[in-house]
Structures are given as C-alpha cells and as structure tokens.
Write a structure and sequence with these properties.
Elements: H1 10-29, E1 48-52, E2 56-62, E3 71-76, E4 80-87, E5 105-112, E6 123-127, E7 130-136
Antiparallel strand pairs: 1-2, 2-7, 3-4, 4-5, 6-7
Length: 151
Amino acid sequence: MNLLAPWRPASTIWDEMNQFRQEIDQAFGRWGVDVPSRPSLAISYPAMNLWEDDEAVNVEAELPGIKLDDLEIAVLGEDQLLVKGTRAACQPAQADWYRQERPVGDFDRTIALPTSVIANKVEARLENGVLSIRLPISPAAKPTKITVKSE
C-alpha cells in the first residue's frame, strides 16, 4: 500500500485556498459583515534579513544552489535594492516527484532600503549559499550634530 500522494504544485493548492477565502468573504459581505483584507499568501523569494548600523545598511539573502554567474545585484535610485537571478531546475531522469518546494527559474526581488546609500561603494559576497551585501549610508542621510551655544 502506497501512502504517498502524487506531487501537486503548491500554487494550485494556494489558488484553491484563495478562491475558497474569496467565496467565504463574499458570503459574509452579503450580510453586511465587513471582512478585513488579508495579506497575500505569496512567499517572497529570496528570504532576506535587513538591518542598519552607524555606517551601512546590511542585507543577507538565502540563495542556496545559485551560481555567481546567475546572480545580479543593483541599487535603484538611492534607496532600493534589486536582487535578480536564475535557479536551475534539478531534473533527475525517470523520477516520480512527490514534493517540490524549492523555487526554480528566474526570480527578482526589489526591497526598499531605510535610507539613501552610496551605490558605487556597495560590497557583496556569496558564501555557502548566503549573499551578504553591505551598502554604505550616504553622508547626506546621516544626522548632523549641532552645537548649541549659550550667551
């Protein structure tokens, strides 16, 4: 007896869940119940951490299996970061898939940075599947200390 179910793309399941949610929202809406909007079930890829210290904005992104040649990073304007690339699909010969959760194909993600950065001084490193980016903060964005005089 085989207890494993055949693999179904996760997007199909999410589409069915979203459709069900919309039908429920419509049913409650007919009785005048205000149904709050819900966040999308879409998952952002790649997963990123972002923090700021005194000198730079720092970003880490999980990119296991990505080759350096398949990765592009850009600063858009002064306060947006673009991470773009391609993850090759693993295609084993004559295999029955039961689960495929790792995204494959082209991806791009743009995130807003908390402050302006110096684009031509950005440093990036890909090591052990983790992309680390250091974006120096623009001097114009740093606070200026003002000395107060007394009479």
